[in-house]
Sequence to fold (284 residues):
Amino acid sequence: MPLFTRHLPAWKKSEIEEIKRLIGSYGLMGLVDMYGIPASQVQQIRRNLRGTTVLKMTRNTLIRHALNEMGGEVAGVSRYISGHSALIFTNTNPFRLFKTLEQTKTKMAAKPGEIAPEDIVIEKGPTSFKPGPIVGELQQAGIPAAIEAGKVKIRETKTVVRKGGVITPKMADVLQKLEIKPMDVGLILQVAFFEGSIFEPAVLAIDETAVLAQISRAGAQAFNLSVNAVIPVRETAPFIIGRAVRDARGLAIEAGVYEKDVIDAIIGNAYRASVVLKGMVEGK
Fold:
């Protein structure tokens, strides 16, 4: 037993052994941040992931002990432990896991002091509020509001908090009253360890539509290059041969090469030329 775990209580040793067992039982291990997720949503996430994924919540120190005991490349995951980390285990690939976790996120009201994940924009237009103190509250929060036709109306669209900005208590209160929920709440993947490699979220957050479009464009460009440079492969050989046949036929016709495959075209050209010549002569 490693020195740094020898004097731990039995329950902590059991937790470390369980983590090590899970690491050895699944093809992918990840760290997720659990900060700010209500208990009810954690249970819903567990239900959504049941059957394919195991979510293991324990102390950061025990996670770090287990990773260090495993050693090798997996020990490098410990440097990503921060906040309220938990472990996630599955046999899918890290890109699919990232996408699955993004789909489990839900929108929630902002709390004072939280950081805006994106620009928070208040759209202009009527609200459901009747005239009253709400007008002053909106104006104090920097939101242009007025009374119109017996209702409170936002006079112009305005960005009230920029991405990365801190949400003040007054702004959090106003956003809640307007039923604007800007916060994404769910499991945030901190890092994934798969087949001996570490994958950070920036690598996993790909736009599938854009990637597929790029692959399609690259395929079309490769096809055109193969045909135009006469580099035959299975997909382009029929087109290259077909173009070569057409070019050879055109050359034979223009040069008057009397072959059985082009003689009809040569005679046809000669006939049309004679008709044109006859017309010119008779026209004179």
